[in-house]
Amino acid sequence: MTSKKSGILKMVLFCLAFSSVAESQETGLVKIRNTEQVITVGGPDADIPGFNSDAVKIALDAIRARGGGTVKLNPGSYDITGPVRLSDNTSLIGSGESTILRKCNGFKTSFIIDADWGMLKAVVKDASGFKIGMGIQLFDSQHNQGWDVTTAVITDIEDNIIFFDNRTVNDYLASLDGTVSNSFSVIEVVDAENVRIADLVIEGNKGTNEYINGCRGGGIYIHKSRNCTIENVKVNEFNGDTFSWQITENIVLRGCEASNGGGLGFHPGTGSDHSTVENCISHHNKGDGIFLCWRVQNGVFRNNTSYADGDN
Q: Average model confidence (pLDDT) for the chain?
């Protein structure tokens, strides 16, 4: 090697080493260094004192506006009337088993007028049990399974007309028992990445709620997302799949428990790639304890316990 080439190589190695040290130290000489954004929810000393999904939503919206961070839920029981939606680079962290997200009572009604494909409203027989911000599902007797169901959040109510944020994916007919129910995922991650959920309990209130299938919902539901971690989360009595993730990449569940659900316990589905499920427990669910759906691949499933489930 010539002296000139040797000198260039040494300079490159020096620059790489310096860059590595600088990045690890994050001194703030070149790039602005920001502290992690943390917003607390629940109780008089919290940033947002409420114990409901509206309070959690306010915190998550603020974190999203700042580009990411952590919402910390203090001990207490939170009344959940709409899906808790997480966005990119967001963590939702509870205080262990003393943080309980409790789904509201169920309500359903029928259509008066057909809810055709692509609509953002439905004319219903009785809107009295709905409220703005509530999660809903729409279906009829021919479109009530899998991806045929529409899920959305109510954005406005006018007399017996409800308006929502997601266009219907089918023609739902009043003559085929067209129905709107407030079945929804308690926590959902859709089109997001770098999300963490940890140290909390979800009570699904199965006895009063309509079933929602795992393609469209779950106690915790992840869709078209990647790099998400769920740790030390218990989901009990949800009327549907307890943990469901569909069309995803790099989803990790550790130390979680799925119990007494109306569907499957753990449901990696629809081509989800590189899922990891370890040290988890599934019991007393109506369906399989762990169900691997179509094209699920490159997964790791280890040290899990499944018992007393209604199916495999």
A: 91
CA pair distance 211, 311, nearest whole angstrom: 17
Number of CB atoms found within 10 A of residue 52's CB: 19
pLDDT in tens, 61-74: 999 999 999 999 99
Q: What string of DSSP letters covers 179-243?
A: EEE----SEEEES-EEEEEEEEEEE--GGGS--B-TTT--SEEEES-EEEEEEEEEEES-SB-SE
CB contact set of 61 (below 8 Å; sequence gap of 6+) = none
If one counts every other C-beta atom within 10 angstroms of the C-beta of residue 27, the result is: 11
Interatomic CA distance for residues 53 and 61, integer angstroms: 12
pLDDT tens track for 281-301: 999 999 999 999 989 999 999
Report pTM. 0.88
Scored b (16 or more CB within 10 A) or e, 71-85 reads: bbbbebebebbbbbb
CB neighbours of residue 124 within 10 Å = 25
**Cα–Cα distance between 272 and 306 in angstroms, integer?**
21
Q: Which residues pair with 258 in a beta bridge?
A: 235, 282
Separation CA 143–CA 50 (nearest Å) = 37
Rounded Cα gap, residues 264 and 242, in angstroms? 6
Residue with tokens 């929502």: 164
- Please answer whether residues 233 and 266 qualify as being in contact, where contact means their C-beta atoms are separated by less than 8 angstroms: no
Three-class DSSP category at 274: strand
In the beta sheet, which residues pair with residue 109? 180
Rounded to whole angstroms, how far apart are CA atoms 81 and 253?
25
Q: Provide the sign of the torsion angle of the four alpha carbons 128, 129, 135, 141, taken in this order.
A: negative
Bridge partners of residue 151, in order along the sequence: 137
Q: What are φ and ψ of residue 37, in 5° steps?
A: -85, 125
